[in-house]
Amino acid sequence: MSLKHPVLAHVALGYAPLYDKQRQVMGTRLSVLPLKPDAPMAAAALLAAVTEALPEGHKPGVLNLPHEALLEELLGAGPLPAQLGLEVPAFLAAKLPLAGHKGLLLKGASSGPLGDARSAFKAAELDLDDLRRGAKDANALPLWCNVVRSAAEAEEAFQRGAQAVFGLPVDGVYEPIPGKPVKSEVTADLTVIVDLMSQVDKEAPLEKMEATLKRDASLSFKLLRYLNSAAFGLPVEVTSFRHAMMLLGYPRLKRWLALLLTTASKDNLMRPVMWAALRRGLLLEELSKGLNDSDAKDEMFICGLFSLLDHLLKTPFAQLLQAIPMPERVRQALVDGEGPYAPYLQLVRAIESESAFDYRDACEQLMIGPGEVNHALLQALAKGAQLD
């Protein structure tokens, strides 16, 4: 595969949302992990690659580079793009060229005052264990929590003084709370979308679908906003549901109804999960381009979106499938953990874990090179920024 950015062939990329106490997503943290100690990397090449995924004018990005020489090269090259922050380990802060920089993040609590260098930093990142020990930053920087892996950890971090956290607040599949009844049906505010999905699945007459859509005026507006986004790339502006059907047909419309369902939750605590579900869908869609399967693109998009639907709707997958139609290969991946899409979901989870070991293992299972995966990931993040 010919890569626009050859540096991507030598690293594992991981990502995580950054969000505040109200669960508003503030930006994206992109981790760059060398796959080999001697992997060839140049700061300029790496910066050119990642800034495409974190475009100016959208929510900012934070770059995590656990590589001292690369950090020094990047900081020494001059101010970073306005939309990009950089994590700087506290133990290296006194050694790196910080003059002229703004918006950096101090990773770990500093042992003493930073002096003039303090103005380069906007926050200090501490681990949850640090917050549990009552650690503070010697420079009185705002505290962010470095990595959380569940909703409970996120809430604890905020309770212990963090103003923002990194990490997907989801750990595994949804498990009902013991003693609490499990939802037996989709909530009323989502029934219009589910009804439309069922009608599209059965290829119902357009007039019937239009009548269903009229039950929720805001839904039509949101659907048109998605369809007319730059990420969708239609050559003309879509002006109505009927127009959308003429342009898309039934199969492609399924994916955008799936997106509406995934982003329709009114639970503010679910905002980071909705953010992550969209990126999962876009990433699997990008990866599907390497398959010789005309149905895979839309199905893998839906598979990624729905992979967090159990958390969003607080209902186990097996029960959701009784109400929400989905392709058989998607069902296999989500319910049984099997089928052709399951290894791709495993790859997405490895990327979210920001673990080079898990990333390499998942790539090898699929026989996909890191360059191809990383290119797909950056494309997905850029499209996600356009749809937010």
Structural summary, described in words:
By secondary structure, the protein is α/β, with parallel strands linked by helices. It has 2 domains: 6-166, EAL domain (TIM Barrel, Alpha-Beta Barrel), CATH 3.20.20; 188-353, Hypothetical protein af1432. 45% of the residues lie in helices and 12% in strands. The protein has helices at 43-53, 68-76, 128-132, 151-159, 191-201, 206-213, 217-227, 241-262, 271-288, 296-306, 309-313, 317-320, 328-336, 342-353, 356-366, 370-387; strands at 11-20, 25-34, 61-64, 84-89, 104-107, 121-126, 143-145, 164-166. The protein has an 8-stranded mixed β-barrel, surrounded by 5 helices. The longest helix has 22 residues, at 241-262.
Write a compact overview of the structure shown:
This protein is an alpha/beta fold and 388 residues long. Helix content is 45%, strand content 12%.
Q: State Rg.
A: 22 Å
Structural class: alpha/beta
Number of DSSP strands?
A: 8
Strand order of the main beta sheet, please?
A: 1-2-3-4-5-6-7-8
Low-confidence stretches: none
- Mean pLDDT score: 87
**By CATH's scheme, which homologous superfamily of the largest domain applies?**
Hypothetical protein af1432
Shape: globular
CATH topology assignment of the largest domain: Hypothetical protein af1432
* Largest β sheet strand count, sense and barrel closure: 8 strands, mixed, barrel
Helix and strand element order: EEHEHEEEHEHEHHHHHHHHHHHH
Subunit arrangement of the protein = single chain
* CATH 2nd-level architecture of the largest domain: Orthogonal Bundle
Which CATH class of the largest domain? Mainly Alpha
Strand content: 5-15%
